Amino acid sequence: MRQFACDCGAAVYFENDFCINCGSALGYDPRRNDMVTLADWGNGVYHDLLGNGYRYCGNGEEFGVCNWLRPSDDASHFCVACQFNRTIPDQSRSENQQRWQVLERAKKRLFYTLGQLNLPLINGWQDPQRGLLLDFIEDARSSDEYPETFVSTGYLGGVVTINVLEADDAARVAAREELHERYRTVLGHLRHESGHYYWALLNPDADMLWEFRELFGDERDDYRGALDRHYHEGPPADWRERYISAYASAHPSEDWAECWGHYLHIYDALETAWAHKLLGVQPPVMTMAERLGAWSRISLMLNELNRSVGRGDAYPFVINELVAEKLEFIEAAIHRLRALN
Ligand SMILES: [Zn+2]
Ligand SMILES: [Zn+2]
Ligand SMILES: [Zn+2]
User: Fold this and answer.
1) What pTM was estimated for this model as a whole?
2) Cα 260 to ligand 2 centroid, rounded to whole Å
3) Distance between Cα 288 and ligand 2 center (Å)
4) Under a CB-based contact definition with an 8 Å cutoff, are residues 160 and 81 in contact?
């Protein structure tokens, strides 16, 4: 993530909707890829220094969960990122307001990085064949309104489903412990699930598919059976030599999505490091090997900083040689996906 500044000169952050220094309204303009300082023109219309007219996204105006802007004359009620929502958490239940905020913030970070990578961003309303939609869904664990359902976070046919409870710290930590995971975050889920979507969009040619199967395995292997086996028997003892995480060993498609998620983690974290002058070059001009070299240094520093303040490792993963090759493959896939723009 880059660093942003208010027109008054104060540093502001991606999630801000006002400047604590000068009190101006702020929002993120995805077309300019920048935070914009706003003056209020009344009736929900704002303008910047250049006189461009803006409105906040409808989800910001109505629910306070989005600080992205849309042009004041835009036909859509929502910002470009909220146009991907299909199901939102039931706002009549007060605990869901905070949870939706958490989900939206993570979603915006995902979209920001997808934009930095110049990946196609097509919503499923625009293009039901190739587009993406998001469902933030509850089940019996959070409300007895849904006694029969048990909703897992996942991806199917152009739709990413996130269980709203993932935005609840206590519930997410309980799930992490139960599944013996070392890392579980909403942003991590979203990045992982976006990997399934982009795999479906990629439509690899025969050479690329061959290379995929050499590295990750055969994605046509029985998926349900593989996941059942993973949850009953656990990962193979030597998973650390071949995978980025235990879950990645469950099935080639999960390995791809895990690596995709890590590609985005690394890319965004290195951009943050560059923005804060811990790194001299920006990730887009680095090769994958250079990024991995820098990330090995910076992630160690990040973990040590975390331990210095009594926290666990921020990035509890080791990138072995085979995972590095998988990340190179993802880099090539991203180049191919860009051509679809
Ligand atoms: Zn300011
Ligand atoms: Zn929005
Ligand atoms: Zn997955």
Assistant:
1) 0.96
2) 24
3) 32
4) no
